[in-house]
Design brief:
Radius of gyration: 14 Å
Strand order of the largest sheet: 1-2
Number of strands: 2
Strand content: 5-15%
Largest sheet: 2 strands, antiparallel
Length: 108
């Protein structure tokens, strides 16, 4: 079954290039990234990172955020599916808002 709003290979690569590492590791420098088997890996080991869809706000339970740069973040498996991301939605929204603003700000 295909999704109408699937994350394309190009979009996946663009999010990884933009974030450059697990966002939890950016927010919590002491975080130890882990894969789904619990094996540690470097926060910038892009081949191990997953993407999480982050809603703009509350109230859309059961609805996935759009698949675009404004709604996706890079996380290690543990941060994404181990519960941290769900508990830190406001911080992830703030991160996306900040990088979106930085991308649209005019230099000088």
């Amino acid at each position: 079954m295909s999704r109408k709003d699937a994350v394309t290979v190009e979009l996946h690569a663009a999010v990884l290039v933009r974030d450059r590492r697990c966002i939890r590791a950016k927010m919590e420098p002491g975080h130890g990234c882990r894969d789904r088997w619990g094996n540690p890996h470097a926060p910038d080991a892009l081949e191990y990172l997953t993407l999480d869809h982050i809603q703009d706000g509350y109230g859309r339970m059961g609805k996935r955020a759009p698949s675009d740069l404004a709604h996706l973040v890079s996380l290690c498996w543990d941060a994404h599916l181990g519960g941290w991301a769900t508990a830190h939605r406001p911080e992830l929204r703030a991160y996306l808002e900040r990088i979106s603003k930085e991308a649209t700000d005019e230099p000088g």
